Amino acid sequence: MSTRRAPAGEPISFEKYMSSPAYAELRGVDGIAATAKGSMLADERQRSLLFFIQAMSLRPGGISKFATDFVSAFPELDKGGQIYPDLPDSLARSPLIDEWNLDFEAPMNWEVPTRKFCMGELPQLLTELCINPEIVLSAGARVVKSLFDYQQKFSECASAALADTEVARQVFKILDRALQYRKMVVLEGEPGIGKSEAAKTWCEMHLGQARFVTLVGCVNKTSIFRTIGRALGISSGYMRGATEMQARVEDVLQRSRLCLVVDEAHFLFGQGERIYSRPEMIDWIDTALCNQGVPVALVATPQLTRRLHQAEKQTVWQSTQFRRRIKDFARLPLKPSDVDIEAVTRKLLPECDRTSVKLVVGHSKLSPWPLSWIANLVEDVRGLANGRPVKFGDIEEAIKQFRTPSDVAQATAFETPVPAQRSKQAPSRAVVPGVARGSALPLHPSRIIDADHFPDACKMPQ
Question: What fold does the segment set 338-411 form as a domain?
Fold first, then answer.
């Protein structure tokens, strides 16, 4: 008798649909299966395309969303003339019929027929490209060539979305070297200077070669491996332990040759006030990744080096093995320059004139984190504009209505409390027989004698 079905009238089970094929498509292409095929490819460009498709399948909407975006980017692939009933309404007028001309690894004397694919089959085709070892990613095939072009356009769009700042240029340079030499690099900088956004953008530009993870809120080994596993497309359910996920993560990173970029890397040391054992995750990066030629980039605040010194002081661990594996260590600027602040403003508000930009830049410099302040302001301004181009009055209204009250309230709430002043009256001190007042002799509790209880001991010697 099947245990997968319940009789009519039974209480509803919320897990009954979790194995549905509709959900399976949203989970994306499995990272282990994609790595198995990627490890067979000697061509760097083909391997990059494979992991690019796999990464896109892990995003909201899954492989179906990526297929839709791909067709929208290349309308010339649309032959037209037929409508397929399995298409969504938004795509019913643009079916995709194309001679894909895919190359197959076929046995001798076996002829591979040329066939056509409709739009409804495209998600399955893209999945097969990632995991089927018999399908060759031939650059001559029309669909593969279009995928290469789409990957290039995606990288260019990601690059264009980021303002050209000094921090971004330094981050890009160091991450390029990590990928080139397949070594570990460390980027350390103060909060709010744009280092995380720059690292994320670089990973978007190299989506077929790198994965970006942020460890915000990760306080133990299990949560760290679960975060990395999700970025790689590895099954990391809540029933899986850290040891099982660790083995899978190691296997995928070592065989896929992907660069791992870890933001908020100071969480690798844990967050306890007292460190009782050696930093296990740092040792894991040293041995399982760096020793195996996996490029790693750690992006962190100065807490990283402070926690490193704390671990050395409170345990027997030494940082020598970790530090000698660092290819490049970069200390980023303490704060963004005026030129960088203006560049970010113009990138986020391209329709604004010079007067509006000066207004935003001037107010942002009053904040300890000007770039974050600008990002919050842009959200408020866009809400007030409600789809139309932003005007000078919108910026003034957003500053007056949202930003200024928030800044004042925050400054008041987080103001450093002034310690209470001590009384000017000198505290009373116990009198010790035989010790003159003002003597430098320290008073120990065992040396203080109460004259009321021990009158004989308090008599002055004759």
Answer: Helicase, Ruva Protein; domain 3 (1.10.8)
> Residue 81: what pLDDT?
32
Residue 287 is classified by DSSP as: I
Class of residue 458 by CB neighbours under 10 A (exposed 0-12, middle 13-18, buried 19+): middle
Q: Is the pLDDT of residue 452 over 50?
A: no
In degrees, to the nearest 5, what angle opens at C-alpha 291 toward C-alphas 289 and 296? 40
Task: Give me the amino acid identity at 186.
Answer: V
Is residue 357 helix, strand or coil?
A: helix
pLDDT in tens, 213-272: 999 877 789 999 999 999 999 988 788 888 999 999 999 999 999 999 999 999 999 777
Q: What is the pTM of this model?
A: 0.81
Q: Residue 55, Cα to own-chain centre: how many angstroms?
A: 14
User: What number does CATH give the domain 162-331?
Assistant: 3.40.50.300
Ramachandran angles phi, psi of 187, nearest 5°: -120, 115
Cβ-contact 56, 66 below 8 angstroms: yes
**Predicted pLDDT at 420:** 66
Q: d(Cα 204, Cα 349) in Å, to the nearest integer?
A: 22
Domain ranges in the chain are 21-157, 162-331, 338-411
Give the chain's end-to-end CA distance (angstroms, integer).
106
Number of neighbours of residue 164 by Cβ within 10 angstroms: 13
